[in-house]
Amino acid sequence: MTVGRVRWTICWLLFITTTVNYIDRNALSVLKTTLQRPLEQGGLALTDVDYGWITFAFTAAYAAFPSLIGLLVDRFGVRLGMAAALLVWSLAATAHGLVGSVIGFVLMRFVLGFAEAANFPASIKAVAMWFPQKERALATGLFNAGTALGVIASPVTVWLAARHGWQSAFVAVGAIGLIWLVVWMRNFQTPDEHARLSAEELAYIRADQPAPGERIKLPWTTLLRYREIWPFLIAKFLSDPVWWFFLFWLPSYLDHERGQNPLASAGMVALIYAGSSAGSIVGGWLSGALIGRGWSVGRARMLTMGLAALCMPGAIVAYYTDSFIVCVALIGLCTACHQAWSANLYTTATDLFPAKVSAAVVGLGTSAGGLGGMFMTLLAALVVQWTGKQQYVFVAAGLLHIASWLLFAVWFRGRFVQVDIDRSTDTRRAHRPLLISGAVVSLLGVSLAVWINANWALCVAAANLSGAAQAMTAAAGVALLGAALLYAGKARPR
After folding, report:
1. 126-137 confidence digits (pLDDT tens)
2. Could you tell me which CATH class the domain 6-202+227-424 is placed in?
3. Interatomic CA distance for residues 468 and 464, integer angstroms
4. How many degrees, rounded to 5, is the angle at CA 55 between CA 230 and CA 83?
5. Average pLDDT over residues 24-36
6. Residue 112 binned pLDDT confidence (cut-offs 50, 70, 90)
């Protein structure tokens, strides 16, 4: 039987959309040094803490809204959900060039984070709709490689800023998304709607998902009651911050601690992230190849993720080595391994949950990853402000993936069984683990807030007023997370 390739065209659409997503979000990090210049030199005189506050706004929105957006994508479909997100995030990226203050950047960055949160829930849902299980990790790896291409394009952003001012650079990257929006609307369809999809390819796609899966509305509070979702959420919380750290802070590290100028830093970042594209694709291919050889889905995913996690301590060696070439090579290896890890971690959401709720599950995972990224961004800002170096964050970046893999290994022991979502859990009874964890997390958040308030002068001395305010905001976020878990765990009548 000859199987067509329409599904790979869909993967190409997702790849370009992800590339546009990362071009828009990465523009700020590569222009950080430019924006830190004094006003008379064409900058905005941003401090490291100002920059931390601006990125904090992005990650706070990215953490807060994906769960809601995932539910909407499941309800209204990938085509409309992604189109709305593309429109909003492109306008927000363009608007960066129209503001001239820290407050303006904070607001635009918040809107950008809100809209860009839709990309991965929608894309993973599209992969679940269009690909059989053995090809999903590869398809995810391919479209996820767009994250690296978006970063690789960063030298162009720096060049535009040098030639025409930083304002024109933001306007240009925003315009790219508006152009791609037209292409997206004209070309993306579901398998059941696509005119060029052959019956043979449709049968191939549906081989391990006979029912297309109707659109449903399932509250996030119910999804949190499934124990299968928690390793995914915790792994996203622990490992995503490493990517955020490299994305937001790598250019300034190469500039300030390795002595590279902004354009050279952008070039090194592009080289590092070129390797991450290969990692994303190879990681997706490897687990699919193992499944094709008869391995169980769980064993194939776990082996691939484990190999990636074992390479991540290279980040620690990268910081302490005196060789700049070795440093760049090891950071490149880490970004490649993170993307190999990410391609498989995302795919576990569709291994463990059916396609009809995949956007909601991935949305919750994106929220968890965004929350972790929010704290990593805050931590990096405070550490740099306090010590002038990023060494402690590099150490954390080298260990978090291993911790995440160990959680998966203990929790599943290599056996992935998909949840029967149609046999919903009984929400009329309280969920004791959620209530206990919610109480613990709430207590932790309140305790952090009390400690920060009691040591306010110390926090201000360490990281200025805005840094202390960020720390208090983070503590409040922990308390709110605990409250959300308590709400999800309480009994409610049908």
Report:
1. 999 999 988 999
2. mainly alpha
3. 6
4. 70
5. 80
6. very high
List, for residues 290-330, the tens digit of each pLDDT value.
998 999 988 999 999 999 999 999 999 988 988 888 888 89
Cβ neighbours of residue 296 closer than 8 Å, sequence gap 6 or more:
414, 415, 416
Look at residue 39 and tell me whether its pLDDT is greater than 80.
no
d(C-alpha 48, C-alpha 352), whole Å = 41
pTM (predicted TM-score): 0.84
CA distance to 34, 164, 255, 484, per residue, from 45 (Å): 9, 19, 17, 38
Q: Is the Cα torsion angle 163, 165, 167, 169 positive or negative in sign?
A: positive
- Which residues have a Cβ under 8 Å from the Cβ of 386 and sit 6 or more positions away? 462, 463
Give 414's contacts (C-beta < 8 A, 6+ positions apart). 296, 298, 299, 302
CA dist., res. 365 & res. 351, Å (int): 14
Cα 256 from Cα 251, distance rounded (Å):
9
Q: Which residue type occupies 90?
A: S
The percentage of residues in the chain with a pLDDT greater than 90, rounded to a whole number, is 29
| Span 138-150, pLDDT tens digits | 999 999 988 888 8
The percent of the chain in helix, strand and coil, each rounded to the nearest 5, is 80, 0, 20
Which long-range contacts (C-beta less than 8 Å, at least 24 apart) are formed by 104-110? Answer: 105/28, 105/44, 105/54, 105/57, 106/53, 106/54, 106/57, 107/57, 109/28, 109/54, 109/55, 109/57, 109/58, 109/61, 110/57, 110/58, 110/60, 110/61
How many distinct helices (H) and strands (E) make up the chain?
22, 0
CA 124 to centroid of chain Cα atoms: 12
Asked if 248 contacts 242 with a C-beta cutoff of 8 angstroms, the reply is: no
Displacement of CA 456 from its chain's centroid (Å): 32
For residue 111, give the 3-state DSSP assignment.
helix
